[in-house]
Amino acid sequence: MTSAGLDVLGASVRPRQAHRGPRAGREGARGLWFVLPFIAVLTLFMIVPLGYAMYTSLFTTKLIGGTVFSGLANYGQVLSSPDFWDGARRVGVFAVIQVPVTIGLAAFFAAIFDLGVARFGRFFRVVFFIPFAIPAVVGALMWSFLLLPQLGPYTRLAAALGFHDTDYFSSGLILPTIIVIVIWEWTGYNMTILYTALKSIPRDVVEAAVIDGATFSRVILRVKLPMIRPAVVMLVFINLVGALQLFTEPSILSAFQPQAVSYSFTPALYVYNTSIGSGEYNLGAAAAVVLGLVIGAISAGSLAWRRRKGDLA
Amino acid sequence: MTTAPPGTERLARADGRAERRKAAAARRRDRRAAELANVVPVRLYGLRRGTVTLLTLCAALFALFILAPLAWLVVNATKTQANVYSSFGFWFARPFVLFHNLSLLTQSMSGSGVYLQWMGNTALYAAAGAGGATVLCALAGYGFARYRFRGSNALFYLTLATLLVPITAVALPLYLVYAKVGLINSVWGMVLPSMVSPVGVYLMRTYIAASVPRDLIAAARIDGAGEGTVFVRVAVPLMVPGLVTVFLLNVVAVWNNYFLPLIIFTRSSSYPLTVGLALLAQGAGTGSKGGLVPVLIAGGLMTVIPVVLLFVLLQRYFRADLLRGSTTG
Fold it and tell me: Does the beta-carbon distance from B172 to A272 stay under 8 Å?
């Protein structure tokens, strides 16, 4: 409609001109002004603090003698601390179980809702997504009460089924308990992302496969899942990063069962307890930098992966 | 005489309203049809009858897993502390003390601060943080999607590099900086970092690339509009669904944030709900005498209701088709 006047010049001229416009010339430079406010806040409230934490981590504060430059001594102390590694190993185990289970469940439900092979899909999608909106603090609180030793409804249920004296907060069960809570919290979010990705696959692709005789499971596994692989890989990274910063759930559970969660239960708890808890800010900063670097490496990995796949265009 | 007889105008207005309603209904129908057109009919897969039932059952079981804790929260907000522990968890018990529990939320519980104030703080932090984040994301997303300038790639990669840097990794660094510049216990110390949303920038960039046609921008420029006018008058109206999504994501992120406020606030009067509830939990969990448990549960319920309502009402902003469409055919 709007191109009617330009048709004399040939329809193909219009889009090319439109594309050249914003790339070059004076207008292009103005783009910086749109981006600048965000970059300014990002710099002041993320990049500068991270840099300052790195700087702080190179010093040691002593009761006598004040703050002195100590090089990488804090890093040495963090990395040789069995407590830190204990927490690191724990979130490793946590991630190895939680990430695949969460994404697997999410993919399963996203696929069946996308294909419309389960009834009430719309309703279920809303329900599954609800925990995303619930603060992890409240989520962990509810589960703490549900799993209280002896008194919790789920503990009683377990007793009724023959599992007497189940202590979900015991050292053997605390990690599975947290995994269940996190799965409860995050499956719906993962499902929504995957569902959105699945929905954006054009109908013709699926139709062609069905007409060629592909069965239901083949459509899901061979046609749909490969097409949403970028979304799945992105979710693996997001979940992994989430797992590494595990903090809220264990710290809330520890309110109910203080002995269940040690001060270095996860790296994030170690950071918090060494710095805010015991006032060893330089050591805490070093631990925070280590944690940040690991997460940064994963972040960079995801970036490299997406770049290779040409997903960043 | 040009005056129309009284009532004509009203009639005309009623006519217009009816028409608008009809148009809205037609739009809904079209959207429905478009939704259906994009789904391959189930019968084509040649599934056995039982499969649909079985899969529905799986979904129902998972829904039960999701909803049970929430049902527990609602039911137990109506109970006394003794009944929370002694009565059946998924059904009500006498006495029904919901309103008494809710009234406790306006009082200071054993010196740990007032719930209502925490709620006000949370609302302030969420509104200001998410509002600011949405504005920054709209601007930056537009800048990245529709301009090429020196360093645009570098800045975009910087944004992507921070995409997955979690607030947990930044919280202690922020505390260290705040301690230097006196931002501990400051509202700004909470609100400004909450405005940093690299994910939102990425989302808006993708959204704008798909839904704000370059031709439209070029046409507006030819008509003599400045860059700011083009953004406000042409781009923003087309970005609204994406902006709502970004706003929602950020409201939830701030509303649910625990680690940052835990670290940067030392005064309980500045706490948001999450930190306040955790403080109550500490009291309720260790010394079970204080009668804090009902406050904790009722407080948890009141914390959950606003965000869940927001989400259920605005669920459609998480629909796939909103992230496409509106490009000229």
Answer: yes
Gap from A32 CA to chain B (nearest CA, Å)? 7
pLDDT digits (tens, 9 = 90+) for A73-97: 889 989 999 999 999 999 999 999 9
CA distance to partner chain A, nearest, from residue B278 (Å): 7
Helix (H) or strand (E) holding A137: helix A136-146
Q: What is the pLDDT of residues A160-212, one digit of tens each?
A: 888 887 788 888 889 999 999 999 999 998 998 888 888 878 878 877 887 88
Between the two ends of chain B, the Cα-to-Cα distance in Å is 49
A 10 A CB-CB count for A40 gives: 11
Given CB atoms, is A145 within the 8 Å cutoff of chain B? yes
**A259: nearest CA partner in chain B:** B286
* Structural domains for chain A: 2-40 (no CATH), 73-308 (1.10.3720.10)
Q: CB-CB: which of A27, A52, A268 is closest to B173?
A: A52
A21 touches chain B (CB under 8 A): yes
B-chain residues within 8 Å CB-CB of A184?
65-66, 69
Q: Which of B259, B235, B318 is nearest to A189 (CA)?
A: B318
Write the DSSP string, B73-117: HHHHTTS-HHHHHHS-TTS--SS--HHHHHHHTTSB-TTS-BHHH
Q: How far apart are CA A296 and CA A56, in angstroms?
A: 19
d(CA B139, CA B136) in angstroms, rounded, equals: 5
Is the torsion defined by CA of B262, B268, B273, B274 positive or negative? positive
Name the residue among B40, B136, B165 with its Cβ closest to that of A37.
B136
The C-alpha of B13 sits at a distance from chain A's nearest C-alpha, in angstroms, of 31
Identify each DSSP E strand in B130-262 by its residue range. Answer: none
The answer to whether B312 contacts A126, with C-beta atoms less than 8 Å apart, is yes
A35 in Cβ contact with B155 (< 8 Å): yes
Where do the domains of chain B lie, and which CATH numbers do they carry? 42-104 (no CATH), 115-323 (1.10.3720.10)
Residue B126 sits at φ, ψ, to 5 deg, of -70, -45
Give kind and range of the element (H or E) at residue B188: helix B187-194
Which whole-number Å values give the CA distances from A52 to A282, A286, B185, B265, in the listed order?
Answer: 11, 11, 20, 20
Closest CA to B159 of A190, A34, A27: A34
Chain B contacts in chain A segment 40-59 (CB below 8 A): 41-42, 44-50, 52-53, 56
Rounded to whole angstroms, the Cα distance separating B299 from B41 reads 46
- Search chain A and give the residue with CA nearest B218: A18
Residue written as token pair 């010196």: B111
Q: Which long-range contacts (CB under 8 A, 24 or more apart) does A116-122 make?
A: A116/B39, A116/B42, A117/A216, A117/B42, A117/B45, A117/B47, A117/B51, A117/B52, A117/B55, A118/B52, A118/B55, A118/B56, A118/B58, A118/B59, A119/B52, A119/B56, A120/B56, A120/B59, A121/B59
The 10s digit of each residue's pLDDT in B120-133 is: 999 999 999 999 99
- Cα-flanking dihedrals φ and ψ of residue A65, to 5°? 105, -15
| Residue at A119: amino acid letter | R
